[in-house]
Amino acid sequence: MKRVALGLVVLLLGVLPTARAEDEAPRAVPRPPGYSGRDWSVQRDWERKLLECADDPAYLRAVHDAVCERPHPAGTAQDAWMIERLAALFHDIGIEPERHEIWPYLPRFVSASLTLVDGEERVALPVRELPEGESEADFDAYYKEVLPGWNAYSGSGDVTAEVVYANYGTREDFAKLAELGVSCDGKIVVARYGKNYRGYKAKFAEAAGAAGLIMYTDPADSGWGRGLSWPEGGYAAPSSIQRGSIKTLPYAGDPLTPGRPATKDAARVDPATLALPKIPVQCVGWIAAQPILERMRGQDVPAGWQGGLPFRYRVTQGDAPFRVRLQVEQERRIAKTANVLGVVKGSRYPEQLVIVGCHFDAWTFGAGDPHAGTIVLYALAKALAQEARRGNAPGRTIVFANWGAEEMGIIGSTEWCEANAERLDEHGVMYLNLDMAAMGTTFRCSADPMLYDVVVQATKSVAQDPAAPAQSVFDAWTADTDGKPRFGVLGGGSDHVGLYLHAGVPSVSLGAGGSKGVSYHSAHDNLRWYRQVVGDDYAGARMLTRVAAVLLARMAGYGVLPYSPDNVLREGADRLEALAARAPSTSTRLGLLATVEKMKAARLRLGAVDALRAGVPVHGLDVATGTEAARLLIRAARAWLSPAGLPERPWYRNVYAGTDPFSGYASWSWPAVRLGIELGDAAMVDAADDVIREALDDFTRPLIQMQALVDARK
Amino acid sequence: MKRVALGLVVLLLGVLPTARAEDEAPRAVPRPPGYSGRDWSVQRDWERKLLECADDPAYLRAVHDAVCERPHPAGTAQDAWMIERLAALFHDIGIEPERHEIWPYLPRFVSASLTLVDGEERVALPVRELPEGESEADFDAYYKEVLPGWNAYSGSGDVTAEVVYANYGTREDFAKLAELGVSCDGKIVVARYGKNYRGYKAKFAEAAGAAGLIMYTDPADSGWGRGLSWPEGGYAAPSSIQRGSIKTLPYAGDPLTPGRPATKDAARVDPATLALPKIPVQCVGWIAAQPILERMRGQDVPAGWQGGLPFRYRVTQGDAPFRVRLQVEQERRIAKTANVLGVVKGSRYPEQLVIVGCHFDAWTFGAGDPHAGTIVLYALAKALAQEARRGNAPGRTIVFANWGAEEMGIIGSTEWCEANAERLDEHGVMYLNLDMAAMGTTFRCSADPMLYDVVVQATKSVAQDPAAPAQSVFDAWTADTDGKPRFGVLGGGSDHVGLYLHAGVPSVSLGAGGSKGVSYHSAHDNLRWYRQVVGDDYAGARMLTRVAAVLLARMAGYGVLPYSPDNVLREGADRLEALAARAPSTSTRLGLLATVEKMKAARLRLGAVDALRAGVPVHGLDVATGTEAARLLIRAARAWLSPAGLPERPWYRNVYAGTDPFSGYASWSWPAVRLGIELGDAAMVDAADDVIREALDDFTRPLIQMQALVDARK
Fold it and tell me: What is the ipTM of this complex?
């Protein structure tokens, strides 16, 4: 899964060094800060070779063919098959694969059915995506191995009840139902997909006393309301089903081993003590929701609740006498799966880790989710491995990670973080997430501000379209924003959650969108859909591969880590100031504003750090000094990790960024402050403010030390 | 018809006199400016008696029964029947009716049909509102006298062609079609109702080369997208049809006698020279549009074009081989109709005219449009006539006008203006429009700023709900706007067009909305719909009657006209300043801003006019002085009339306000300036600016003279 929030940030760039085209340098590649002419020549040659090898549409296509052959949800036989296939792909490019085996608590689909009970009539409503009733052209995309619609971690049960329509099932929607005097007690709630993480729909429905929950895709949200349906166009067809997990625990990863690795013999939590869903929850297409919704005769819907089906929606059944029977059976058990990793060892700072990841488990074929990222990952690995064999190894170690069981609740990557906690804390310099990356050709990026500058540099170094090399990815990205790059904020919904929000490694998610379609978690997330809707030329995947290749070459190069701490303080101050305006009390507001001032003062002070501003020359540092510089920069990056974690969810340790705990996908800046504001809890805000002030010192101190280090070397 | 634009204005009230409750005065009635204690006592007693007589739900209901018995479009036999019924109603309340006969050029429905031609198949699509296929409960609302759907002034013709979907058929929509490379040439355009006046859809379609036009009500706009359908709820049913005129000449009224009265033997323009529609145009419900739209297989629609029917809309047919046959026949001829007037003569200033009007012609039964206003008009007339008989005649003459043929193009009221041009110019003090007024209980008002204060005073004087007298209409009106009244700007679409935009009489439209339904121009605009959807208790009509009774009593009372010229300058300056920001050149902008400054200076100067600020004592003036004061105030009100009229439409003489010439319903402030801006024509703006500066002098001068008049009397 990947639903990264688009709380976009327009970066007002400081003065970035302009491209100084050297004689032999390609005109479009600006020299990044910190490289002398000679250093740059070496770096650029390496990058050029990497690009030559990585930007390979035939290979992208071949990997795509290999990984999309069968549906492969985590914990199934096909999952095990997939692990071997991924290992083989590493082997083929000369990387010895590592299987990091884990034993998480996973659900298994057993059965599901939905029945409309109307008087004597019993109408079976489809819980499978059926080509019948849709275009026959879709038939070849339908494989018998695709499971029916199911929501991982649903409760098991068989209930027959009246229904209540709850719009998107957000916190606000359930509050509205309460305001309207509509009880969900003992009812089956029907909610449409969208607006929040589906796990919250289930959580709120259960909290409201519902006996069951049906989630469906409304045609207003991904059908005729958006565009042409599959197979003519790319949007949902009437029977298309969005599968997905509904786990909402206060930590990512295996439910039974929070904070520690899910090894075979790990100490485990008793599942009975966990807040996993108890009621049956079922996802369907609108073909199954329509016969229910159109029979409702009760209360008219409030503003914003009408969907796209051709009748007025109702909140309640009114005098319509029908019932709905919902039957779901799932088994939960400890099952083996694995992450599949390929490592290209660094030659200068081998202990330092750049991690590039994409999950591999998929609800169906995964052509879009996740393998629109997997193909980029392998293209990068192929190039880095080839150059390493030719004697051009990266300065730092690069780990290429295929994460398992992400769809179940970001399990594989989290378990790897927990299994490598110390090493990651000391040496993790960047996590690049590629989940579902190449879904179009419009570049998008969400990132920790520490990585803004290096991303900008990378996008300026490669062409958006090799056939028109004058326009860089940066030019295309910022064409509508007056040359100002827009970064999203990393929220929930993919593998950066463990690496960034728990382990504190500066993270970035690269993507490309703009295609006219959504195949998300449905049976048509297959190669035919991808090649028809996203494109058969892999232009988006190639573009991202180019950007990512340069990004890796810079982050895993020989020089000082190209972090941009100034962005961290600038954005942090701006976002905290915005929150201060909503503070629950004047004294709390004044406290926050004082922290904002402190952040601005620290920014001014760091602005004087030449090493960060102008770049530290790459080859000018001996290994010991370079190692110490990296240690200090990594310490600064970890400053935002709070040992106590966030209020009510201590596993989330990043105080700079977090997920919206009321919706799941959206991101929050300064999440502990934000939670206190949302709850109107001044004491919580004050406590969070104290944590930020201390963290700010932890952020500034090592950076000052680094300056001293560089000064001493002069 | 009545579709007044809601370019709302929040009035930041100056210091209005606070209620000074006298012993015997009802607590809720604030004394208006200019009344001494004794004057106020007399005025208040009169108002109280008027309210007692007017606020009469049984009478409102009886009038409603009388005027909604049969459908009665202008120029039909039922129209003649209706004229007699209206005369009888006047007679019943002791007013001798006057029939002002006119002979306009009116269309007559002859026949219409719509056929889907798909291979060998011929499917007749309904152009009538048919209870079949809808709820049987609707059957009794369907009378054989209701005509099928028709658009008055459509061309006659019989065409068979491919279709193009044009969204709302606005100027922007047709520009988008051109941008997409879609030709309308020889095609039948299908457009949904909404966003602009339907006449412009026809005009743009014809200009684009279309062979015909089908307009339909989309369920997104008045069906399940808005609420429950008739007869369960109040919104459009699948076969509901919005009828309506499509005339778009650059003047209102009879097409053949622009600027002069349509008497029997008037000199007439040759119809062949007029830009009346040439192509056949037909309105239908979505039940008829759906079979066409769902067969289209061509180009996907752009953003914002998707309607509420359950499939993806297309702009073109693509390879779908069907055709549509559209056949319309209408006859155009000179036909007799009339305005029906009732006059209550003023006792002090009988030559001065307060006009209260509502049209009477209706596409079907007219329960909402127009007779939700007719009932208020008669309730007011009954009260004023009764009190006059008892010796409490108004100070000024009140004309109660039932206008004919408004739906065809604002014909009756315009012809009356043209027949009474001189008298109206000299003595018209206010026009109150009541078209379709009582459609709910939420008070709404659009007005010339000259009338803001008196409207505010009136709404403060009566209760929103007599059962809870503590809350005035003003309180309810401004509950969500912090006590600041919001006034709409009078645009096109009803009888104020002639009186305000041509004759320059300060006008006001009172209304009440908030009901959950739309019956606009459809067969269910009948009493059963009104009483089920708007209400059976006539609460909204009673509320408006109360406000209007006080408004009339103040405007037609004994004192100096309670105009508020300060509002005219304040709003005028604000709106001109907003336009200046969009001026096509710097020098033009500077010119406009200089005019704004001049307006502000004039405002300061008039602010010193005590007579206007504090009110001129009512009984302190002898008749001659009062007459002269009124003359000066009326001269000021007419200052905005330009003899040359607006660019390209000289019949529209008001330079302060006008209709949007690209959409018809929306209103423009300073319309000549605005047109120049929209066209990027600096010379046009400069010329309009000159006209405004001169008008500003004409506005200020008589007001200064009035001050001198009042000073001399001291």
Answer: 0.86
